Amino acid sequence: MNQNPKSAKAARAEKKNESEARAISAHNLFRGPVYIFGKPVDRDILFSNHRGIYNKKVEKRQRRLLIKIPFINSFLENGELITLITSGYAPLTRLERFLLRYLTVFQRRALFVFTDRRVFYIPTTFTYGYRYSVAEIRYANCKSIQVVGRSLVFMFHNGGFEQFPYIGRKERRKIRAFVGNVALGVNPTGAQNMAYLCARCGATIPSNSALCPKCRLRFWTAAKAGKMALLIPGGGYFYMDNTLYGLASAILELLLAVLLILSGVDMYRGFTGSVLAVILLSMALAGTKAVSFFHSQDLVQGCFPVMGQLPSAKS
Question: What CATH code is carried by the domain that includes residue 33?
Answer without folding.
Answer: 2.30.29.30
